[in-house]
Amino acid sequence: MLFKIAAVLVVLWLLGLIVFKVSGALIHVLLVIAIIVGLVQLFRGRRGPP
């Protein structure tokens, strides 16, 4: 699920760089947030059900 969100954000980021110069900053912020969340999930590891 997280990787799907990251993939969508990367596509939006590239689209923002090419087409939408104004909304590019917002997309960059969302991409950085997605990377931070992904790294937190990676370092914590997934906990299975008890």
From TrEMBL:
- Alphabetized Pfam families for the sequence: DUF5670
Q: Where are the transmembrane segments?
A: 26-43
Record key words, sorted: Membrane, Transmembrane, Transmembrane helix
InterPro entries of this UniProt entry?
Answer: Lmo0937-like
Q: Tell me which NCBIfam families the record gives.
A: lmo0937_fam_TM
This chain belongs to the protein called Lmo0937 family membrane protein
Task: Name the lineage.
Answer: Bacteria, Pseudomonadati, Pseudomonadota, Alphaproteobacteria, Sphingomonadales
